[in-house]
Amino acid sequence: MGYQNDAIKQDIVGNKSSKNAEDMTYQLRGGVVINEQHRLMGTYSYFSDDINGLLGERKQTQNMFLASYDYLIPVHQKINLFAGVSAGFADNEFKNKISGITVDSTDFVWGGQVGAQFKISNNWSTDLTYRLLDQDYDKIGNEVDYTQQVVWSVDYKF
Question: What is the mean pLDDT of residues 57-70?
Fold first, then answer.
């Protein structure tokens, strides 16, 4: 669970506008810990927000699927810092609230993340992560330039 901010640019016949969509993001992830310094993860995230702009009031809905690698750096017996890379796909849908017209596209996303992990016990840990992703969505005057996320998660290791 966390916060997401999408930078959205609009360009309609030379009229340009920039808007930010921001709201809660909900995430589900699973992965494998290769060893104490390396982990791989798959993440699904959901995000939705209302945007006003040149194209009228629209609802943005985003489903994102990411594969991530993190390198963990131990700084204390119970604390690791980490940095990593992510890549995947985002399905962005923009629906005009008045006309009902929907523009939908699935596009490549990539970026990186940094954060801190606190080990609660041998099986439980919690992460605080900042992630920045570049998006390739550019359809009918709308461009999703990038996504920023701040996410807090609780993990169970089998």
Answer: 91
